[in-house]
């Protein structure tokens, strides 16, 4: 609990951290509203949640700052001296980042679907698939935050961690879409963290999706778990 309390104190007293959490809400809602206002038919739930594709970058920045920021200021030495159990330190950082992301994500997703409903009344909020897309989007953002925590622990640098995470999310997906072979393209979309994870937002034509909604979120969970595992091992073995 001391490690968790310490990490929470550092987060809430770090300049700009609260504004980044607010930015997650603003970017998610604005992106979704702009998208759904530009369409009249199709997967309205998915359109209303399009802002998640933008706010995930802010989530990655938050996570990278929580971990990488300490290496930039050499605060990591003080942290590890106060809490010698290094995995506990990484775990506390992950819990704080995931908690902040869950709260800001829940608010942003709730407002996004309400705005979507206001713009397009055909969006039925009580529909099971729509509800799954909504809370699945919150889980998606939380998993992105954990992926970024792990990558930051590996890179030990904020800018490098943000670059790697954004590359995994956006570049990987773009490359997958450019592959000419449809079978290879589908395979890449099934393993790319962004395209696989965002399958959770689909509420229509699920048979045409490269991967099932929960399976896709599971793929992203594996990415997050893998990055945390590698980050934890390196944190244990390397000098601070």
Automatic annotation (TrEMBL):
It comes from the Bacteria. Signal peptide: none annotated. Keywords: Membrane, Transmembrane, Transmembrane helix. The chain crosses the membrane at residues 20-41, 47-67, 87-114, 134-154, 161-179, 216-235. It holds the Pfam family ABC2_membrane_4. This is ABC transporter permease subunit. The lineage of its organism: Bacteria, Bacillati, Actinomycetota, Actinomycetes, Micromonosporales.
